[in-house]
């Protein structure tokens, strides 16, 4: 009987796996004490774990006014002075293969960065620094990204790893495994709970965003005014930090803030604002990302209400609507040009130049004074483009970004 | 499983499970060629391990989904059950190996309770499985979003070994998944409730009239499905080292598992199908993903390919079955559920 | 699809033979009628929380913004009553939104040609869904799931994920504008008019032979085929109606919200939920078109009520989940009650019909068997 055969085979396989534990191939890097804090014993005990972290808040608050080393015309190479990693051991001639484990390109911010990264790659390939970049895209899935990193370690034949982690804690062991290969590892955007990487590249961070935006709004609003906070989705640390900082400042200044999750869907945003306007006036709108900002402004227009004080993002659609309506606004920036930095870091590493252990990139909001300049610099770009993408000197500019060509 | 590939009959007379594995074989051959063109080896241990790892999580969920679909229902709540189980397991274990057993039991226990609730809503309140489990998924998703901020808890070293250990290139997690598949087969073909699952899925009214208590198989299938989704959550907790409130929905396991089940030849309306076919469907998906990743296909194009493959693969045997009606139960299976045959007659 | 809820075919026939007054009374007690009661209760609750919602202008605007999902629900109704699913709806909406954004641009002259192209695309997608379901015999759940993945992937690949920008204002007026200076109401948004037209058209269609055949096909495809119905063509047209409805929703949403790849996400599930809330039975053959539209309004009212009540944003999913289950469970009970009350001949007829369908039907869910 065929099925019986299968059954027997499978049962045998399962049983033998228990017997053969000595012959098993455990990943050597899984060690007893990986990872950070252990939380309470039952889910109930720490359910209300908050995103707010005073130490990180204070640190990022200071970094907002820090001096950055390097040429301000190349902000993607600037950093805050601090510990440097010595990379002389990696110094070597010739072309190197880079393996890139990407979390996803599922939103316009990541897509814009991905385009920029590929153009930067082209430059380094032409210069003979990088032979090729093999990319695996995890489609926002932790489990897939872990498998992707393991695949690179086993099969990729990589000279260096670039990892843009999908989430912090879950990817930590996999990043550690990559580190243990002895090859350089560059982590960027979201972090991991280990400092084994050669360099960790990121803009100042979510708390700085929250402080910039909430300060802007509270300076212009009175105590008791109402702010509607439009958030994309819960549970993503870079986004949660933005709100955690802003929420704290709003509470301190007596601003009434109501938050909603919108999934970045302008339809949802418009409905939410319309409903809020039906119950009372709104003085301010806060967003944790600029997608759909236009819909929020249009909701005020359609309801015939006075336009709010608002913070969006350096997404073109928001900047254009800002100029068109002349609202009082601020465009915080989660520096999109950071997508260039990892490959440039790899170049430095193979040249044996030291790199910052934690490479903190500038993160400067666009203010009303600079609005016209940024719009001019990005003329002809699609609405989903980000003004501070930092690729003006790369090959293919501006067509590649205008046509949004990506491999 | 390779024995199913030896099918030498003319195509039209093949049972759909054979065709599933023929499609899998085709994927394998095409994949091996394509992968070879990039200078890689499809059959290298690292790649095989990567493919099999890809089958584990979806495998658990798809096995459960098969039972639920066989009984004529659906389960769209699986991703959230998976996330919840990973959180409970990691939370209870809290990096202490003495807590592994309580963590596993509590995670599976809660999953079973959710499955029970699903089953009772479907069988007792007569709510269509689509809506019942969509609603249940929303309920859990709200709970997760409210109570868990990002990843939570930690699984101890011993537990993480499960996700990181392999027998040669075969991950232990895949073996556990296959063991679950065997148990599900035994349940379906050797037990009364298994036969009743086929009967109820085939025709609820006829099953009822022939004296089957139709609630029992529906509820059982839902409980098992949720428990297997919980198993997937445990595996993810083991691989991630932490629990995560989004790990289930990240995978899109609800629709993907249904697609894998149908790809495996199970009738979406219930009453017909097999676990073996489902495993074939899962394997096809895993190989497809692996090949496309090695080829570095644009992630959006991957979705296009996936969408087309799902439809075309199902079309291959769905159309054939209409042209040549096979016997209601696979040939060469005298031990097939007798109840069902009587019922259908 | 599933047979779990399949039962009472005869009762409906019985019902349709009753007189008009009697029918209205009975109608309110059916799931298809009960959704109107649910809707009234929800609207009353909203007005109680926020009286300004009851003002004519706010209310007409509410109808206007609910129009896209209500139209989608009407489209989905045709497919569900034929015993199928359309999961590709959300991707069709997204595609149409992006097509409008990228192809129209700021050029008013392109509005009409692109509009025609969008309608053609909508019809084509419906045709492909329908033919793959009926001729290739692939279950519609799978066909439309595949279509959902493939279409979204194609659109994202084509646009690199981001649309160029919002289309010309003249195009957006369809979804954003309205007839100004109307007495009492203040404004009649165009979406309200389009919804009314779509509902009237749908209602008319369901009274036509096509509508009757569609329900017959959904109830029992074999029986319908035996009476000479071209089942494949009836079903295919249902898919085309669904995709066209999604196209209209997309056109309205471009106006209402603007262009973004996330517009339309989850629309398929919202539309199916709305249809089911409207008392339409998954599996086909039962339910009313206007109830499906009312289901969409009930769902939207629920979201609005949650907004007004200030329910914590993370708990909304849970509330929505509970209400869907409770509403559908209540509906199922009421169908059951009606069945118990139905006449003996109706019961007998129902048994006869279900017994027929116990044989492997010439339906679409023919997989295979074996191990």
TrEMBL record, chain A:
Gene3D superfamilies: 3.40.50.2300. Its main location: other. Residues 1-22 form the signal peptide. It comes from the Bacteria. It is found in: Cell envelope. The keyword Signal applies. GO terms for cellular component: cell envelope. Keywords: Signal. Residues 100-329 form the Periplasmic binding protein domain. GO terms for molecular function: carbohydrate binding. Pfam families: Peripla_BP_4. Belongs to the bacterial solute-binding protein 2 family. This is Monosaccharide ABC transporter substrate-binding protein, CUT2 family. It comes from Arthrobacter crystallopoietes BAB-32.
UniProtKB/TrEMBL annotation, chain B:
The chain crosses the membrane at residues 20-39, 51-71, 101-121, 127-145, 157-188, 218-237, 258-288. Keywords: Cell membrane, Membrane, Transmembrane, Transmembrane helix. Its main location: membrane. GO terms for molecular function: transmembrane transporter activity. GO terms for cellular component: plasma membrane. Pfam families: BPD_transp_2 (PF02653). It comes from Arthrobacter crystallopoietes BAB-32. This is Monosaccharide ABC transporter membrane protein, CUT2 family.
Automatic annotation (TrEMBL), chain C:
InterPro entries: ABC_transp_permease. The keyword Protein biosynthesis does not apply. It is a multi-pass membrane protein. The chain crosses the membrane at residues 33-53, 59-80, 111-131, 138-158, 187-206, 239-259. Residues 339-371 are annotated as: Disordered. GO terms for cellular component: plasma membrane. It is found in: Cell membrane. This is Autoinducer 2 import system permease protein LsrD. It comes from Arthrobacter crystallopoietes BAB-32.
